[in-house]
Design brief:
Largest sheet: none
Order of helices and strands: HHHHHHHHHHH
Number of helices: 11
Radius of gyration: 20 Å
Number of domains: 1
Shape: globular
Oligomer: single chain
Mean pLDDT: 90
Helix content: over 70%
Structural class: mainly alpha
Length: 239
């Protein structure tokens, strides 16, 4: 089993530039945009930028908003483009899912490690010499290395797995089922947001006490559900 799963793992990593480097480039572009925003504001108001602006910039969510779009597409392509090739090489559906999931873990780990490295450089340079906050931000734990790595890792792995879920559902059940799944996911997200807003007085103190770990816990819960769904659909997928 390990041998066949390793084949799917190597197939996923065949284009390392795409599955390993591009997520890092994405974080780099987000960082560049953050720096440019501060430079523009500094030109308009003077350097150094105000403390109020810096504190507001600590709410920058670019690090978690820039990754999902691309990583979901990576997951979709891994579940559709590589599927037939893996089975042709002798892998079973289970081997393919295990090997591809292992590849997802590597992508998520490399992306999270890059985020931690950029966090270190950000703090070492006094926030890129201009007061730009891209990784030393609230959503990543305000400079906490463990939280930065964990949030980025779980978010990246969740995005890849959700993409694989949609790709395997498309393979197994076709476009109608994929559309139904999309609507279902949107409805679940809407219901979750509505519930949080409804019970905000209860939820807000809880989230505040957890900090960035709340994102890790919630993301991990969705990750488990997406993994179960993608595996179940993969068992039914056709070439």
């Amino acid at each position: 089993m390990i041998t066949y799963s390793r084949r799917s793992f190597r197939l996923y990593l065949a284009n390392r530039q795409y599955v390993l480097a591009v997520p890092i480039y994405t974080l780099g572009l987000m960082l560049l945009l953050s720096i440019l925003i501060v430079i523009v504001v500094g030109i308009a108001t003077g350097f150094p930028v105000s403390k109020d602006f810096e504190e507001g910039f600590r709410a920058n969510s670019g690090a978690i908003l820039s990754l999902p779009g691309f990583l979901v597409s990576v997951g979709v392509l891994a579940a559709t483009r590589n599927f037939a090739m893996a089975l042709a090489f002798g892998s079973t559906r289970r081997h393919f899912w295990l090997g591809t999931t292992a590849g997802f873990v590597v992508t998520a780990a490399v992306t999270a490690a890059a985020a931690v490295l950029m966090l270190g450089l950000e703090r070492l340079t006094g926030h890129w010499f201009v007061g730009a906050y891209a990784f030393d931000v609230a959503v990543l734990g305000n400079g906490n290395i463990a939280q930065t790595f964990s949030v980025t890792f779980v978010l990246a792995l969740l995005s890849l797995t959700v993409g694989a879920l949609f790709g395997t559902v498309l393979r197994a059940f076709g476009t109608k089922a994929t559309a139904v799944l999309s609507i279902g996911v949107l409805l679940i997200l809407f219901a979750a947001v509505a519930l949080v807003v409804w019970k905000w007085s209860v939820v807000a103190p809880l989230l505040a006490s957890w900090g960035a770990w709340a994102t890790v816990i919630i993301g991990a819960a969705f990750l488990v559900l997406a993994s179960i769904g993608s595996y179940a659909a993969c068992r039914r997928a056709t070439v």
